[in-house]
Design goal:
Blueprint (H helix, E strand, L loop, with lengths): L2 E5 L7 H12 L3 E7 L14 E2 L2 E2 L1 E3 L9 E5 L3 H8 L10 E8 L11 H11 L3 E7 L7 H18 L4 E7 L9 E4 L8 E5 L3 E3 L2 E4 L2 E5 L9 H6 L2 E8 L17 H5 L1
Parallel strand pairs: 1-2, 1-7, 2-6, 7-8, 8-9, 10-15
Antiparallel strand pairs: 3-4, 5-6, 9-15, 11-14, 12-13
Length: 264
C-alpha cells in the first residue's frame, strides 16, 4: 500500500485538508496528515518552525470523519513539514505528498510564493510524487466540484505521476454542472493578484510604513493560461519540477582560476 502525507498551508482546521485526506483514504492510500497549526499561506518553500530548544512542536489533532488516521498540528511551515516527513518524522517516508485543497488559486508564476505548492515541490525534491490542489476564491463554497476534480487528479497522480514532479491543479469555485472540464495549461505570466506600493509614510527623514495593497490582475486572455482557463470555468493541471541548473549558460567574464592551479 502506498503511503501518503496530506499537508496544506491553510492550517490543520481547513475544510480542504480534511476533504483531501478523505479522498486519499478512499483511493486506498495509507494516510498521515501533518499540517501547520495556524495558517501559513505565502510561506513558499521556507523551512521555518517555532522551535523549542531545537525540537519540532506538534500535537495530535483528530479530524472529523477520519477515525484511525494519524493527524498532527505542527508548528512549522508546510515545506518544513514535507522536508522532515522525507526523513521519517511522521512515520514511514511517504510515496506521495498531497498538498491542499487550498483556499484560493495557485496559478501563474506566483506559485513561487505559495506554501501549498512549496510543500509539494519540497516533497518532489526528495524523490516523492506530489500534487498541489487549489480551489479558486479565498472563501470558496463549491466543495462538490473540488471533490470531483481532486478525486480524478489524485487517481492520475497515483497512476501516472513521476517521482520528482508536482501535479498542480486549480479548480474553479462553481457548481458541478457549470464545470467545463479539466485541461492541461501553461502557467500565466502573473498570479491572481499583484501588489501595489503606496507612498512611504515618513516621520521626518525616517520611514515609518509602506502602504501595500493587493489587486486582482487583469489577465491576458489571448493565451489559454491556467489563470485564464480557471476564470472560464475549467479546472487546470500543470506539471511542475524543481529548479535545475541552466545547461550551457555563458559565464564568460565571471570565471577565474588561481595562477598556481593553471601552472599545475
Amino acid at each position: 500500500m502506498s503511503r501518503a502525507l496530506i499537508v496544506n498551508d491553510d492550517g490543520i482546521d481547513s475544510p480542504g485538508l480534511a476533504l483531501l485526506a478523505r479522498i486519499a483514504v478512499d483511493a486506498g492510500l495509507e494516510v498521515t496528515v501533518a499540517a501547520p497549526h495556524v495558517e501559513r499561506s505565502g510561506a513558499s518553500a521556507s523551512l521555518t518552525a517555532l522551535e523549542d530548544n531545537g525540537r519540532l512542536l506538534l500535537s495530535r489533532r483528530p479530524l472529523d470523519g477520519l477515525d484511525g488516521i494519524e493527524s498532527y498540528a505542527v508548528e512549522a511551515s508546510p515545506a518544513l513539514i514535507t522536508f522532515l516527513a522525507s526523513y521519517g518524522a511522521f512515520g514511514e517516508v511517504p510515496d506521495i505528498v498531497l498538498s491542499g485543497i487550498n483556499l484560493g488559486p495557485n496559478t501563474g508564476h506566483a506559485i513561487l510564493h505559495s506554501g501549498t505548492v512549496g510543500a509539494a515541490l519540497t516533497a518532489a525534491s526528495h524523490g516523492a510524487r506530489a500534487a498541489a490542489l487549489s480551489l479558486n476564491g479565498t472563501a470558496p463554497s463549491q466543495w462538490e466540484t473540488a471533490e470531483t476534480v481532486a478525486r480524478r487528479a489524485v487517481a492520475w497522480a497515483l497512476d501516472h505521476g513521476e517521482p520528482g514532479t508536482v501535479l498542480n491543479v486549480n479548480i474553479p469555485d462553481i457548481p458541478p454542472h457549470e464545470l467545463r472540464g479539466l485541461r492541461g495549461a501553461p502557467l500565466a505570466e502573473f498570479g491572481a493578484v499583484q501588489a501595489e506600493i503606496g507612498e512611504i509614510e515618513r516621520d521626518g527623514d525616517i520611514g515609518r510604513a509602506v502602504p501595500v495593497t493587493f489587486r486582482t490582475v487583469e489577465l491576458d486572455e489571448s493565451r489559454d493560461s491556467d489563470a485564464v482557463l480557471v476564470c472560464r470555468g475549467w479546472a487546470t493541471a500543470t506539471i511542475l519540477t524543481m529548479p535545475f541548473e541552466v545547461a550551457g549558460s555563458d559565464l564568460g567574464g565571471l570565471e577565474f582560476e588561481r595562477a598556481a592551479d593553471r601552472e599545475a
